[in-house]
Design a protein that fits this description.
Number of strands of chain A: 16
Radius of gyration of chain A: 23 Å
Order of helices and strands of chain A: HEEEEEEHEEEHHEHEHEHEHHHHEEEH
Number of helices of chain B: 12
Largest sheet of chain A: 8 strands, mixed
Oligomer: heterodimer
Strand content of chain A: 15-25%
Structural class of chain B: alpha/beta
Distance between the termini of chain B: 49 Å
Number of strands of chain B: 16
Largest interface: A-B, 56 and 54 residues
Largest sheet of chain B: 8 strands, mixed
Order of helices and strands of chain B: HEEEEEEHEEHEHHHEHEHEHEHHHEEE
Shape of chain B: globular
Helix content of chain A: 25-40%
């Protein structure tokens, strides 16, 4: 049995046993630490966590007496990962409709659709994502009763306890050739609908009676939902891939003075300077170098590198539908690695799944980096996190170690090859 | 000429050489309607790649070694090889060499990007009009201009199998292709590769047909339809055998041959061992049932594809000589995929069965060694000792074996086709890329030479593809 396997089988933190280590002080010593607050990692650093927060990180931090000490020599520490577009908590088995709550196809909820009430903290996908080092995620709605708006998404903070960190934290909309059918068949109608809705939301007086305003294409419910967008309180996240739509998103941000984030952004490299100048962040899957749809003809493998060079704030998500939510933490590493293989700086790629999303989604004062006072969301790796051969040694979320004993891990343990071969059927093998 | 001879050889494969009277007569007419390959290797020169770390695909690793490509074949591997006059030398210290990668599950050329869902749809992944479309052949739908082929080549893939999708029980014939550019499917068709038959079990067929109120609506319905089809194929083969026997005995005299049935012809080809079965199947029970059907009708399944629960029944796969072509990390998207684990390939491999990493995606199809890396990493964490030289087999010699081409591709050995990839570094690193890809000894792709980077017609001249100034 390898040392690594032995470490994996130790009941580090399983279920209710976690509660007993609530107030534990933990120190990882002598590791290579990517704080994300500096351009380069600390080569031999120490990080100390207590009460769910980082209390010290640096080259010369002392380990407090009584702290649990984890030897980090040869290992790598990063903040927990941050996925900027998933359906975590909103789906369990894609083909089983009853487990899917990420969208509605009809009904009175358009922009007012809000996925927060469906979030399932018990989702096995969340357990797997946590074990894979994911600390935060944006869960977004896929469709509402009134295109092109999809509704409100939620910001999740994983780890023991409530996962909903912020509800109604961003409004989502989708434009482009693949979705224009729901607006009648032209993406121009999609843009008109968004602009008109923002116009009317701005004009809406909240004191007036309920009911649909006269001569309006939008319900009062939806216009009320858009008020925080026009008032600049929450960003409008627009799914757009074609260059022309990305430029329309920039124009909309300028014309209405609203905060816009572009999601998708396959052709964003073609509008990189404009995005940077307008401070419009972009959520991309950097590995997409083939056009899945006509809006993506400009797909290229160095999209992320070109955006980084132009000064655009970039955060990562995974396009492949299975990885989007089922490997929401695990698959981030590979796409980040491919971004680096195609010209993005290693540090920038790490930032795109840690500190950048924290900035974009308004939680830089709490996470996405390793600094005193920030959440103790920390991952310990046995190598470069972007490499497929690297494994996780430990994950800490809110200062508590996350169980590696996911359902997949239990299946693996049950079926791993054994000599001599077991005499009882597999169902008799497994954790107590 | 070579292609014509090859077709004839295929047709008469069951005949002992020189015999006029067949001992076991061919059960069905030859597959003369299938399109012969017009593939010609690209212009080539002899090449020595020197000083590299070489993984031969069958478990061996040679450090600081050379490989000689001559007349389209591997001529030698070793340290400090003698360099024939006129040979081109590629200094490769610090770089790695592997066999050309083989993707056994691709929809390139049919899952045509960009997808246009309007009328008529442009993709031809599967003929879904009936649960049994064994008479169809995916090679009739391949668009060789698909950009996915060039990207696969740039990702180190030199051979791939395109198969029909997995909505039908019998999906039709698959085809093995090279990733070099061509105007037509025949330009890139792998010469003399045995055809395959795509099949599917489990949720997909009954989900599709059952939702329309058609059979099958259940797994038991699927199996009944499969067994009935195989029995019909047996009967068809027996009719043809009787006909051939009468013919041989000179008894035919005016008797008409049996009616030709293209669907049963394909199934009979499986029973004769000439067509290899590639079967989409996820759950352990379904895999076991499929293997038992194969035993009942005395044919072998070359590979179970996706095989998400292969790790639960690796002994059954090993005993049947059936490979499992899997992903390292897809799970959860349907009930039969819910028990997917990342150690799947490693556990199958450890049980002595044949593990293969496949893509089923034009994106993943560019990074097959990363799929193998993820699978290797999971196996190592579970305590298995898996080396790079072992896991490279999952994307080279193992798929070659499942395709019946392991006498010419999938390994770096003297006499094998010179399908070779020179990597910028460790092929299992996300940062490595193929620097050069050789197909039949010709440099088909060179990362540093624009003249050796094929650009498909679709991507020519579009403003969105213009380089950033």
């Amino acid at each position: 049995m390898t040392a690594r396997l032995a470490m994996r089988l130790l009941p580090l933190c399983l279920g209710l046993a976690c509660a007993s280590v609530l107030a534990e002080t933990i120190a990882i010593v002598d590791a290579k630490i990517y704080t994300m607050t500096a351009a380069a990692p600390i080569e031999n650093g120490t990080i100390v966590m207590r009460d769910g927060r980082i209390v010290g990180v640096g080259a010369n931090v002392e380990v407090p007496a009584g702290a649990r000490r984890i030897e980090g020599r040869g290992l790598v520490v990063t903040p927990a990962l941050f996925n900027s577009a998933t359906q975590l908590g909103l789906t369990e088995v894609s083909s089983v409709g009853a487990t899917n709550d990420q969208g509605v196809s009809e009904g009175p909820l358009g922009a007012a659709f809000d996925i927060q009430y469906a979030l399932n903290p018990q989702s096995m996908l969340i357990r797997q994502a946590e074990a894979d080092g994911l600390g935060r995620a944006v869960s977004f709605p896929t469709s509402s009763g009134a295109a092109p708006f999809a509704g409100y998404g939620a910001l999740l903070h994983l780890g023991d306890g409530a996962i909903l960190e912020r509800a109604r934290f961003a409004m989502f909309a989708e434009v482009g050739g693949q979705s224009s059918g729901r607006a009648g068949g032209s993406r121009s109608a999609q843009w008109q609908l968004i602009r008109s809705a923002l116009d009317e939301a701005r004009a809406l007086r909240t004191g007036s009676k309920p009911g649909t305003p006269r001569d309006s294409a939008f319900s009062r419910l939806d216009l009320l939902a858009l008020k925080p967008v026009v008032e600049g309180e929450v960003p409008l996240v627009i799914d757009a891939n074609r260059e022309s739509d990305i430029r329309q998103a920039i124009a909309l941000a300028r014309d209405y003075g609203v905060r816009v984030v572009v999601k998708g952004g396959i052709e964003a490299w073609r509008a990189a300077d404009a995005l940077a100048a307008a401070n419009v962040p972009v959520i991309i899957d950097p590995s997409i170098n083939l056009p899945l749809y006509f809006d993506e003809l400009g797909a290229r493998a160095d999209n992320a590198a070109l955006l980084q060079r132009a000064g655009v704030l970039v955060a990562f998500r995974i396009n492949l539908s299975i990885h989007t939510s089922f490997n929401a933490g695990f698959a981030l590493r590979e796409i980040a690695g491919l971004a680096v293989a195609n010209g993005m700086d290693h540090h920038a790629a790490l930032a795109a799944m840690t500190s950048n999303p924290a900035r974009i989604w308004g939680v830089a004062d709490r996470g996405g980096a390793l600094a005193p006072g920030l959440d103790a969301d920390v991952v310990l790796w046995d190598g470069d996190p972007l490499e497929p051969l690297t494994g996780i040694v430990a994950v800490f979320l809110r200062g508590r170690e996350v169980s590696q004993s996911t359902r997949q891990a239990e299946l693996s343990e049950r079926y791993r090859p054994r000599t001599p071969a077991p005499t009882l059927p597999p169902a008799y093998r497994g954790p107590e | 000429m070579r292609a014509a001879i090859a077709t004839c050889l295929l047709a008469f494969a069951a005949l002992p050489s020189g015999a006029q009277v067949p001992e076991s007569p061919r059960s069905a007419p030859p597959a003369a309607d299938f399109l012969p390959s017009s593939y010609r290797p690209l212009p080539r020169e002899d090449v020595v790649i020197a000083g590299a770390t070489i993984l031969d695909g069958i478990g061996n690793r040679h450090d600081q070694s050379d490989i000689l490509l001559r007349d389209g074949k591997i001529a030698a591997i070793g340290r400090n090889l003698a360099r024939p006059a006129g040979v081109r030398v590629i200094e490769a210290a610090g770089r790695w060499v592997t066999p050309g990668l083989i993707d056994i599950h691709s929809h390139n050329g049919t899952y045509l990007l960009p997808i246009v869902y309007e009328n008529p749809p442009t993709w031809d992944v599967a003929e879904v009009s009936s649960p049994n479309v064994a008479e169809t052949a995916i090679e009739h739908a391949i668009n060789a201009q698909d950009p996915a082929f060039s990207l696969a080549l740039a990702g180190g893939v030199t051979t791939l199998q395109v198969l029909p999708g997995s909505v039908t029980l019998f999906g039709g014939r698959s085809v093995v292709l090279k990733t070099v550019p061509g105007r037509t499917m025949q330009d890139i068709k792998f010469p003399d590769a045995a055809p395959g038959l795509k099949m599917a079990c489990g949720e997909n067929p009954k989900g599709h047909f059952g939702s329309k109120g058609q059979a099958p609506t259940s797994r038991q319905g699927e199996v009944a339809m499969m067994r009935a089809a195989w029995q019909n194929a047996r009967d068809y083969r027996d009719r043809w055998r009787r006909h051939e026997r009468r013919d041989a005995d000179g008894e035919r005299g005016g008797r008409e041959p049996p009616a030709r049935d293209l669907e049963l012809e394909t199934l009979a080809g499986v029973l004769d061992g000439e067509i290899r079965v590639h079967l989409h199947c996820y759950a352990a029970d379904d895999i076991a049932v499929m293997l038992s059907i194969a035993r009942e009708f005395d044919f072998r399944i070359a590979a179970i594809h996706h095989a998400v629960e292969a790790y639960k029944v690796p002994d059954l796969l090993a005993a049947a000589g059936t490979c499992a072509a899997v992903w390292p990390d897809w799970w959860g998207f349907k009930m039969e995929a819910f028990d997917g684990i990342r150690e799947n390939a490693a556990f199958v491999d450890a049980a002595g069965a044949c593990a293969i990493m496949h893509s089923d995606s034009p994106f993943i199809g560019q990074h097959l060694t990363l799929e193998a890396a993820k699978a290797m990493a999971a196996g190592r964490r579970a305590g298995l000792d898996i080396s790079r030289e072992r896991s490279i087999a999952w994307v080279t010699s193992n798929p070659a074996r499942a395709l019946g081409l392991d006498d010419r591709i999938g390994r770096l050995a003297t006499g094998f086709n010179a399908d070779v990839v020179l990597w910028s570094g460790d092929p299992f690193s996300v940062y490595s890329k193929p620097d050069q890809v050789y197909v039949d000894g010709a440099l088909a792709y060179d990362r540093n030479d624009r003249q050796r980077q094929p650009v498909p017609d679709l991507l020519l001249g579009h403003p969105a593809r213009e380089a950033v100034r």
